[in-house]
Amino acid sequence: MDRNQATGLILFAAVILVYSFFFASTPEIPEVETATTTQSESIQSNGANQPAITETISESDSILDAARLAKYGALASITVGEEETLTLENDLIQVEISSKGAQVTKVILKEYKSWKMEPLELFNEESSKMDFIIESKNGPIDLNDLYFTPTVNSSLDEDGKTIQTLTLKAGTESGQIIQTYTLADGSYQVHKSFEIDRYQGVFTGNALALNWEDQVIAQESNLAESRRQAQLNYYTTSGSFDNLGAGNDLETETIPEPVKWVGFSQRFFTAAMIADTEFQSVTITQSTPEADSTIVRNMATSLSIPLQEGKAGFTYYFGPDQYNTLKKVTDGFEDNVDMGYFFVSWVNKYIIVNLFAFLEKFFTNYGVIIIIIVFLIKLALFPLTYKSYIGMAKMRVIKPEIDELKEKYGDDATKMQQEQMKLFSKLGVSPISGCLPMVLQMPFLFAMFFFFPNAIELRQESFLWANDLSTYDVFFKLPFTIPFYGSHVSMFTLLMTVSQIIYTHFNNQLTTATGPMKNLGYIMPVMFMFILNSYPAGLSFYYFVSNMVTFGQQALIKLFVDDEKIRAKVEESKAKNVNKKKSKFQQKLEDAMKAADSTRKK
Predict the structure, then answer these.
(1) pLDDT at position 121, please?
(2) Measured at the alpha carbon of residue 462, what is the angle toward residues 319 and 113, in degrees to the nearest 5?
(3) Over the stretch 539-553, which tens digit does the pLDDT of each residue have?
(4) What 3 state SS string does 228-264 have?
């Protein structure tokens, strides 16, 4: 036996001795027993004590019942019960609903994982709170205070899809409140209906008020990008889409007209409510909790759902921001995905989205899909690329004539411009012939700038060293942070920058650009290197591949078109245009330049 065991045994024995001496002496035992017996006999023979206890308990219950009755009136009896969690589930989502209040408490998207590779909870009880309130003669009633009895059944629709229906009822002899949830297979939409059966004179309001507060859970590793793209969106019944943007300060807006839907949208996912008819008195609020890295943004809405004969309905959408999926939900719902400004959005909506959907059927590697898309777009735009090359080549071969004009009229800018216009007309050369085809290709370049940061198709898809094409690739980590650049090096962005600088050098050999314009081509790639270093790897990879394909196209054109052939065409045009009269446009342009020059001299 060691020291600790011996010490423990001695202390244990000491406790027993002390207890026996002070609390367990023999003379006291009969008195305790007698007292106990006497008290029992007294209670049995004379019920004076027992009614006192019963009276106290009854009085306490009566106070609680009276308070409950005063607050809830005819609904008082259904404010007591046991909470139960019910689950509606299909192949895409799992929705948990509480029997207390009949409210959605958790949503899991089964096809997706969080950036930590955990089940993706779009929201849960801790992050989201919904309060449905209706006016009664006893005051506002929060449905979360009522207990409902659930029943679940399944059926088949006309297409053979399984439809699960969860019905929750809370009622008394005076009537009942019925809330019903419906979920079909293959759908991210959960329809909810609300109905008051009887309860004449109990409810005084003609609308169901909702307060929904949601702490949008961060699902991506790049929190800054998620916050930049998180928006509280809405769509009015008149067909207008708008939102509270990406500001970090507290923002609140009251929408002056009825609303069709409200959506809490983060980068790749949306939780939304879509009215069967309309939402009224809609107020939206958002703020950014800078110190909490688990939350993208705090979003909230308060709105009114009109009751028609005691009934109302709306649809929840819990799912991904996938353009083709959102487009099938309701009018304007696809606008939860930012496809860019109106002059480039058509490229994404009608070309890129459909190309991705088509190629996904045949390829599983999204790096390969991006390469194929580059080739298809470049092939479609090849006629413009060809015209651009020829236009720049013509300007290059007439450079000696332009240099002569500069020597002759270099000190008179207006005269120089006039003579250049005459030269271009005489030689059949347009100064914009090389630029215009490039301008026509710009919508495709800008469209990609919006598409890739919002393409859920690239989320958690790897390619080469990039673990996730929807965020920046980290080729290696820097031990310090460079302002406006970051603390990592994106290799795809670096490759894009190098290829763009080489392309600029190659392109300068084909043009007559000099001075600042020539150097600008080298500055822009470096600027974009800083901008795109924290953008999705898929975007930088697209631009890199696009540059490489452009090199190939220009090399191919150069094999079949050389400067001598172009010079021959210019001389041919020169011979034809010897006696050519000035066009009305050219004459007006010259007159305008002369007027401007005379005004300047005055």
Answers:
(1) 95
(2) 30
(3) 999 999 998 998 888
(4) HHCEEEEEECCCCEEEECCCCCCEEEECCCCEEEEEE
pLDDT of 192 over the 60 cut: yes
What per-residue confidence (pLDDT) applies to 597?
56
Q: Describe the crossing of helices 515-532 and 537-560 by its angle, rounded to 10 degrees.
A: 150
CB-based contacts of 413: which residues, under 8 Å, 6+ apart?
none
Distance CA 535, CA 521 (A): 21
Place of tokens 């839907």: 261
pLDDT digits (tens, 9 = 90+) for 228-260: 889 999 999 999 999 886 655 678 999 999 999
pTM for this prediction? 0.78
Task: Report which secondary-structure segment, H or E, holds 269.
Answer: strand 269-287
Q: How far apart are CA 470 and CA 459, in angstroms?
A: 5
Q: State percent of the chain over pLDDT 70.
A: 79
User: Distance of CA 56 to CAs 39, 44, 49, 50, 138, Å?
Assistant: 20, 19, 11, 10, 28
pLDDT tens sequence across 551-588: 888 888 888 777 777 777 777 776 666 555 555 555 56
Max Cα–Cα distance, the chain, nearest Å: 143
For tokens 């007698």, name the residue: 34
**209 membership: H or E segment, kind and range:** strand 207-217
State the Cα–Cα distance between residues 355 and 309, nearest whole angstrom: 48
CA gap 301, 282 in Å, rounded: 7
State residue 439 phi and psi, 5-degree precision: -65, -40
For residue 376, the tally of other CB atoms under 10 A from its CB is 13
Whose CA is closest to 323, among 310, 338, 308? Answer: 338
